[in-house]
Amino acid sequence: MQPRLPGFAATPRTADAQAQALRLWDVEQLPTHGGSLRLYAIHAGDPRRTTAAVAELLATEQTQGLRDLATYQGFQPRANRVKNDLLAHLIEQQRAGRRIAAYGAVAKGNALLNYAGIKPDLLPYVCDAAPAKQGKFLPGSHIPIRPPASLRDEPPDEVLILPWNIAGEVKAQLSDLAERGVRFVTAVPSLNIS
User: Fold this and answer.
1) Tell me: the pLDDT tens digits for 106-125?
2) pLDDT tens string 135-146
3) Which of 4, 6, 30, 148 is a plausible cystine mate for 36, CB 3.0–4.6 Å?
4) Number of domains making up the chain
C-alpha cells in the first residue's frame, strides 16, 4: 500500500482529490517562511512508486506529535502566550518612555499584530525595504509603513522583527543600530530581546 498523508485521497474528507483520483507521490521540505512543504500528486493509477520522502515526512510528523489531538489542543494557549507577552512588553516599553518600531511588513507579522490588537499607539510604524509597501499601511492595524532609513534617521530603542524566521538576517542588516544600543525583539516562538 502506498503511504498517504492523513486525509489525502484516502477519506471522504478529500472529495476533490478522490474525484480526481489523485495520490501523493513526493514531497519536498523547503525553508520558505520558516518551513514549507511542496507536495506532488499524480493520478492514482500512475505506476510510479511513492518516494521515500513521503514516508520519512509522515514518520517525522508522527514523532513530533502532529497526529495527536493534544498537540493541537495546546496550540491556542501557546498563541495566547505569544500575544500576551508581546502586548505586555510593548505596554511596558511605552510606559517607560521607550520608542519601538518594527521591521518587515510581512503577512505573518501582520497576522500577529492584528491578533494581538496592536495599533499605532503601541507600535508607531514598521519599516520595509520594498518600495511598493512604503507610504502605505498594514491592513487592519493601520500602522504606517516607512523605508528602513527611518530606523537610522530616528533610531528607536527597540526594533520588533516581524519576519521572525529570518531574524538573524535582519539583525545583520541592521547591525549598525545594535552598535548604537538599539535592542532587537522577536515574539515567536517566545518573546526574545537581544
Assistant:
1) 999 999 999 999 999 999 99
2) 999 999 999 999
3) 30
4) 2
- Same-domain check for residues 36 and 114: no
For residues 168 and 81, state if they share a domain: yes
Which pLDDT score is estimated for 15? Answer: 56
**Among 72, 92, 117, which residue terminates a domain?**
72
Per-residue model confidence (pLDDT) at position 20? 78
Cell numbers at residue 121, please? 499607539
Pick out the chain residues at pLDDT < 50. 1-13
Residues 66 and 134 placed together within one structural domain of the fold: no
